């Protein structure tokens, strides 16, 4: 059922390497323009790299020259030109990345995003430090860093959740959602971001919107743990995306797929390490169109508020998703952050009374090990059932190590909000078809009285469950 068979995963990845123009091993026909790719240094265009003067014009001039060079060489499809950033700190307002250009931010170089509203275009949907729109064959690499100076956007530091500045001047965005993102690829084809650190985004970090063929690998993302909305990678309405060997340590959602601008097909994320005060891997909540063919494999999630999550609110449907070989520890944090320590969390419900109900079908969890302060939460809605869920080789250890109160289920955003509820190993609502195969639950004996039920469901809303090799044991330390 869900997704391509796991044995195909590696070969699918290899295939994608071949299809992308950046592939290490190119197609047999030799490139039309041999010789080293052109490189333009921002220093030669007048960048100071002192971290104080704005280098915006120099960087943009280098990109424009590089773009013109790549366009002249357009006979070689996918031929790119590099803009080099030697060691130094390059303060910049928004720069536009153009077709055929790869930013080569070298070891010891940092691109610093401006912290003034005048550093960004008038329209808030273009508030990015680096923005590529409608471009082809573009990328960012080089062992250096892009830094959004997110801490400069904190109005009041708070261990629970920082209060952030708001650029709510135009009314186009509201409250704490009014800050610039770090990097955006909008409507691009053949995007590659690799071997780079992305640090302290003021808002979302790496945003991929309506793109085709995106390859993100060997990327480290660090965001402040107490800052809201500093998501790691947000992929919206894009097809054929590969994310691999990434390390994401941030306050808000780490890898987040959305269908706000269009459907999202064929994404794989593998070999990543994640820590977040929010959801590590998420589908939603913006979910107007369909999600199909997503594979998440070999991922380690530590100390996160939630592990794997599907959060459908706007009527889109989710199909053929596989989560495999994943290790999770999930714990409570302050309830001002969405999440109640669920290792696995699937909800679909209408955001507003008038929203459409989305459905979730063919989701497979295989080889999952979790240690968690709360149980699994699976909740559809009356007209938006969860269908054909499969859990296979799943071990969950239930124990408590923080002092936050339990006994709440979290339907946010929208729907019923936070609701008092008894505690259970798995809570199930509005499901048709659930197979539980080789699932082991282990409970810390001295804390076992905190749990009301092993499983919690009503036959009137949950239909067609089967159990094979199901165990539940107490353990003592
Ligand atoms: C699950 O784990 C088993 C044992 O380690 C392994 O043989 C199998 O290939 C894994 N399944 C997937 C889908 O990765
Ligand atoms: C946004 O700005 C408008 C106009 O300045 C103000 O009325 C409103 O309260 C602000 N909203 C938030 C959530 O900051
Ligand atoms: C990217 O970084 C990885 C790990 O740091 C390193 O092994 C690899 O050689 C780098 N690749 C390139 C193309 O620089
Ligand atoms: C992704 O594929 C779907 C289905 O073919 C298509 O409707 C959509 O326009 C594609 N999106 C992009 C950005 O290519
Ligand atoms: C997604 O992958 C499937 C299976 O490889 C393929 O048949 C389909 O055309 C792809 N869809 C898009 C929109 O890339
Ligand atoms: C899983 O990912 C880690 C990096 O997080 C990597 O070191 C390891 O080799 C991967 N395992 C497999 C089986 O690919
Ligand atoms: C689950 O626990 C059993 C028994 O300890 C062990 O044999 C199995 O490998 C574990 N599976 C996973 C996916 O952690
Ligand atoms: C849950 O119950 C407690 C005690 O009965 C009450 O104080 C609290 O307001 C309730 N919370 C919600 C979200 O209903």
From TrEMBL:
Residues covered by the Rhamnogalacturonase A/B/Epimerase-like pectate lyase domain: 40-103
N-terminal signal peptide: 1-25
GO molecular function, a single term: polygalacturonase activity
GO biological process entries: carbohydrate metabolic process
InterPro entries found in the cross-reference section: GH28_Enzymes, Glyco_hydro_28, Pectin_lyas_fold, Pectin_lyase_fold/virulence, RHGA/B-epi-like_pectate_lyase
Superkingdom, natural source: Eukaryota
UniProt KW keywords: Glycosidase, Hydrolase, Signal
Pfam families: Glyco_hydro_28, Pect-lyase_RHGA_epim
Keyword Hydrolase found: yes
Protein name from the UniProt record: Rhamnogalacturonase A/B/Epimerase-like pectate lyase domain-containing protein
Organism, as annotated: Corymbia citriodora subsp. variegata
């Amino acid at each position: 059922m869900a997704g391509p068979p796991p044995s195909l995963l590696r070969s699918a990845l290899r295939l994608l390497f071949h299809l992308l123009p950046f592939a290490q091993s190119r197609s047999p026909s030799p490139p039309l323009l041999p010789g080293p790719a052109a490189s333009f240094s921002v220093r030669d265009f007048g960048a100071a790299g002192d971290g104080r003067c704005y280098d915006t014009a120099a960087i943009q001039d280098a990109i424009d020259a590089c773009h013109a060079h790549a366009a002249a060489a357009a006979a070689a499809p996918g031929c790119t030109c590099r803009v080099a950033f030697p060691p130094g700190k390059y303060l910049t307002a928004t720069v536009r990345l153009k077709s055929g250009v790869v930013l080569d931010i070298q070891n010891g170089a940092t691109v610093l995003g401006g912290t003034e509203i005048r550093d960004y275009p008038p329209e808030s949907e273009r508030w990015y430090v680096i923005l590529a729109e409608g471009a082809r064959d573009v990328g960012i690499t080089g062992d250096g860093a892009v830094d959004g100076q997110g801490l400069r956007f904190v109005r009041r530091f708070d261990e629970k959740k920082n209060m952030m500045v708001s650029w709510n001047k135009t009314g186009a965005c509201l409250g704490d959602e009014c800050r610039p993102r770090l990097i955006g690829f909008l409507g691009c084809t053949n995007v590659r971001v690799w071997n780079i650190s992305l640090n302290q985004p003021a808002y979302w970090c790496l945003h991929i919107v309506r793109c085709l063929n995106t390859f993100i690998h060997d990327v480290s993302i660090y965001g402040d743990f107490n800052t809201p909305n500093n998501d790691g990678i947000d992929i919206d309405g894009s097809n054929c995306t590969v994310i691999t060997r990434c390390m994401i340590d941030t306050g808000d959602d780490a890898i987040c797929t959305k269908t706000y601008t269009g459907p999202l097909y064929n994404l794989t994320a593998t070999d990543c390490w994640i820590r977040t005060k929010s959801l590590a891997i998420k589908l939603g909540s913006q979910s107007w169109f369909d999600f199909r063919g997503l594979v998440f494999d070999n991922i380690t999630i530590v100390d996160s508020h939630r592990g794997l999550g599907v959060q459908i609110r706007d009527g889109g449907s989710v199909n053929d998703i596989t989560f495999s070989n994943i290790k999770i520890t999930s714990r409570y944090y302050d309830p001002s952050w969405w999440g109640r320590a669920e290792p696995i969390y699937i909800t679909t419900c209408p955001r507003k009374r008038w929203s459409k109900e989305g459905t979730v079908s063919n989701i497979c969890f295989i080889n999952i090990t979790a240690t968690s302060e709360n149980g699994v939460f699976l909740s559809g809605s009356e007209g938006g059932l969860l269908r054909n869920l499969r859990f296979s080789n799943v071990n969950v250890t239930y124990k408590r190590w923080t002092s936050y109160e339990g006994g709440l289920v979290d339907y946010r955003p929208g729907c019923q909000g936070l609701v008092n509820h008894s505690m259970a190993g798995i809570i199930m609502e509005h499901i048709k078809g659930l197979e539980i195969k080789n699932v082991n639950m282990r409970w810390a004996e001295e804390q076992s009285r905190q749990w009301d039920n092993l499983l919690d469901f009503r036959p009137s809303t949950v239909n067609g469950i089967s159990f094979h090799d199901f165990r539940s044991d107490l353990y003592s330390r």
